[in-house]
């Protein structure tokens, strides 16, 4: 395997990690309006992700940084091409991040309410927009021979990308709900499981259409027919099992399965892309690939050594941190956020 | 409007704003780690109170620092895509390493620190804040590795029409980095120190929690002196390095149009006329610039006119005919002097403070305490002017000698988009700054007493059983 191919895998892993981890804290953020009945419940929910959301977001920073380092052309084309979409993601993440810290700094219901709306919007928009981003990239964007992308609104926002964005958003919501049922107690715990069951049906519907649209509007099933079909089967299995585990109140397993669902769905996108990193809708020869978008061999070698050395530590202390805060959160204790 | 200008305005806006929070994060994290270490060693509850109180203020700042930091990672691609294509091979690596090595550590352990007061063993909790502090400094190291490459490119070769990395070790031992990193870190220590000193002074004036704020003040003054002296020495080393590596920036920072006499005088004040390329009025200290540049009372420096001619010869093939290699002189000249001025003021204040402290007269020195409150702004201004000098003084280049700013922007992004994002950032930044200051003032007025805590009950371990 060439180093540039390896780095495509590493970038994929970082983004899959991002969707798996930040996925549930986006979902929890959405639940603060969709499930919570009052501010007290919102506080409990926000505190379930309190120690984690910031580190989860670093998976995005690391992913973007790795694209920059390993595939400068991909980085340049994607970030400049999706200018306004990136701006919206940035603004959403900015207001979301500070809202956690600010929301209960003043003992006033209206104050908290304003920041809680920011948490909701900041958790709703990014997964939708990331869904739009990655799937429109897969479908193909107007990228010219100089690798520059000049997209109109409809290139970015079309039936396929919007539907995919909504699907990703639903997957995150479901993942957040199973996380909540795992991390809370009492009423919220039961209600999140009940809601997860309903959302799961919507997820099924959304995924069926998503797979159908992908069949007609992208070439992923032509490029990797066997792998993609296998992933689809596994997605069906994962969400089927998650329904079973939610019903059986096996919350840890249910959460694992909704996470697996996200991992598989995002993998399907990256597997379909490879060896391209951005598909040109103008001309096949304008595609950005892992070969024409990547850094030189020396740079990739250095980065590989660094990443392989550091990542085990990162995984180690991340897992430890989840272990430290393994207890369920309830409003009977002191809540930081 | 010109997209290059708009992109530059946006870069200035987002980086300057972000860099209000970064040095305060680095400085305060370090000081809080010291406070908590003192608590662990001396077992005096007041140090725990200190760590908690300054920790509250730290976290408000940290939140804004983190979220405005994400912009930095995105904006090279968004506004400077041709730059990113050209240098990504070299410049991207330190950014990726920063995320992998520093951000993961910082963000995980800040979570453990915030939520871990009652959950973690004391020593592990203490280690957490140290890891946050180390993480924040490491992140500084890697981003400055990237920045140093823009000032003094090393460890690369031009291949396939772009800069490709050939020597990673050269990148992280870049002479520029070795003088820039200590300068930024010591500047950050000043920022934390003068923040703590100013807030403490305000409360000492009001005679509130005297013991608490005296202890805080003492630590702040010590760190303040170390930081400001360190900044002066490392800054001096950086300036000497500049003379050799970026003589044009140095000449602009000193307002030197013609080659200086030998020995060269140092300009305290100059009325600069950039149109006629001369200074109408100058106030100079003889010998001083020679000494500052070469550590001896001889030696001259080249003027901007000479350098322009030299650069035309050397760089016109890269930058194009008729390129003006002289950066905005007044901005470079005055930001340099303002930085030095604020830095010197901090050395002076730390020394006076420690003197008063030793004499036991600190609390009675009303005037001194009153000065410390506005002095909170000194390190912020010093940091900002320092960066303005560094970045504006490098113009017309993004990577010195390799790529111009005009060639760096995204060719596919319209002025309208850039303008729109500038407006959006400005709105959000203004709101965030107002909220943050409001919350900090509230927190300071509230003082170091414990917040009312409802105490925790034992909760259930979800991994223990399957059902409800």
From TrEMBL, chain A:
<feature type="transmembrane region" description="Helical">
    <location>
        <begin position="158"/>
        <end position="178"/>
    </location>
</feature>
<dbReference type="InterPro" id="IPR003317">
    <property type="entry name" value="Cyt-d_oxidase_su2"/>
</dbReference>
<feature type="transmembrane region" description="Helical">
    <location>
        <begin position="229"/>
        <end position="246"/>
    </location>
</feature>
<dbReference type="Pfam" id="PF02322">
    <property type="entry name" value="Cyt_bd_oxida_II"/>
</dbReference>
<feature type="transmembrane region" description="Helical">
    <location>
        <begin position="298"/>
        <end position="325"/>
    </location>
</feature>
<feature type="transmembrane region" description="Helical">
    <location>
        <begin position="199"/>
        <end position="217"/>
    </location>
</feature>
<keyword id="KW-0812">Transmembrane</keyword>
<feature type="transmembrane region" description="Helical">
    <location>
        <begin position="114"/>
        <end position="138"/>
    </location>
</feature>
<protein>
    <submittedName>
        <fullName>Cytochrome d ubiquinol oxidase, subunit II</fullName>
    </submittedName>
</protein>
<feature type="transmembrane region" description="Helical">
    <location>
        <begin position="6"/>
        <end position="36"/>
    </location>
</feature>
<keyword id="KW-0249">Electron transport</keyword>
<keyword id="KW-1003">Cell membrane</keyword>
<dbReference type="GO" id="GO:0005886">
    <property type="term" value="C:plasma membrane"/>
</dbReference>
<dbReference type="GO" id="GO:0019646">
    <property type="term" value="P:aerobic electron transport chain"/>
</dbReference>
<feature type="transmembrane region" description="Helical">
    <location>
        <begin position="258"/>
        <end position="278"/>
    </location>
</feature>
<feature type="transmembrane region" description="Helical">
    <location>
        <begin position="82"/>
        <end position="102"/>
    </location>
</feature>
<keyword id="KW-0472">Membrane</keyword>
<feature type="transmembrane region" description="Helical">
    <location>
        <begin position="57"/>
        <end position="76"/>
    </location>
</feature>
<dbReference type="GO" id="GO:0046872">
    <property type="term" value="F:metal ion binding"/>
</dbReference>
<keyword id="KW-0349">Heme</keyword>
<keyword id="KW-0479">Metal-binding</keyword>
<dbReference type="GO" id="GO:0009055">
    <property type="term" value="F:electron transfer activity"/>
</dbReference>
Automatic annotation (TrEMBL), chain B:
<feature type="transmembrane region" description="Helical">
    <location>
        <begin position="184"/>
        <end position="205"/>
    </location>
</feature>
<dbReference type="InterPro" id="IPR002585">
    <property type="entry name" value="Cyt-d_ubiquinol_oxidase_su_1"/>
</dbReference>
<feature type="transmembrane region" description="Helical">
    <location>
        <begin position="20"/>
        <end position="41"/>
    </location>
</feature>
<feature type="transmembrane region" description="Helical">
    <location>
        <begin position="334"/>
        <end position="355"/>
    </location>
</feature>
<keyword id="KW-1003">Cell membrane</keyword>
<dbReference type="GO" id="GO:0009055">
    <property type="term" value="F:electron transfer activity"/>
</dbReference>
<comment type="similarity">
    <text>Belongs to the cytochrome ubiquinol oxidase subunit 1 family.</text>
</comment>
<keyword id="KW-0249">Electron transport</keyword>
<dbReference type="GO" id="GO:0019646">
    <property type="term" value="P:aerobic electron transport chain"/>
</dbReference>
<keyword id="KW-0472">Membrane</keyword>
<protein>
    <submittedName>
        <fullName>Cytochrome d ubiquinol oxidase subunit I</fullName>
    </submittedName>
</protein>
<dbReference type="GO" id="GO:0046872">
    <property type="term" value="F:metal ion binding"/>
</dbReference>
<keyword id="KW-1133">Transmembrane helix</keyword>
<feature type="transmembrane region" description="Helical">
    <location>
        <begin position="127"/>
        <end position="144"/>
    </location>
</feature>
<keyword id="KW-0349">Heme</keyword>
<feature type="transmembrane region" description="Helical">
    <location>
        <begin position="367"/>
        <end position="389"/>
    </location>
</feature>
<dbReference type="GO" id="GO:0005886">
    <property type="term" value="C:plasma membrane"/>
</dbReference>
<feature type="transmembrane region" description="Helical">
    <location>
        <begin position="91"/>
        <end position="115"/>
    </location>
</feature>
<feature type="transmembrane region" description="Helical">
    <location>
        <begin position="53"/>
        <end position="71"/>
    </location>
</feature>
<feature type="transmembrane region" description="Helical">
    <location>
        <begin position="217"/>
        <end position="239"/>
    </location>
</feature>
<dbReference type="GO" id="GO:0016682">
    <property type="term" value="F:oxidoreductase activity, acting on diphenols and related substances as donors, oxygen as acceptor"/>
</dbReference>
<keyword id="KW-0812">Transmembrane</keyword>
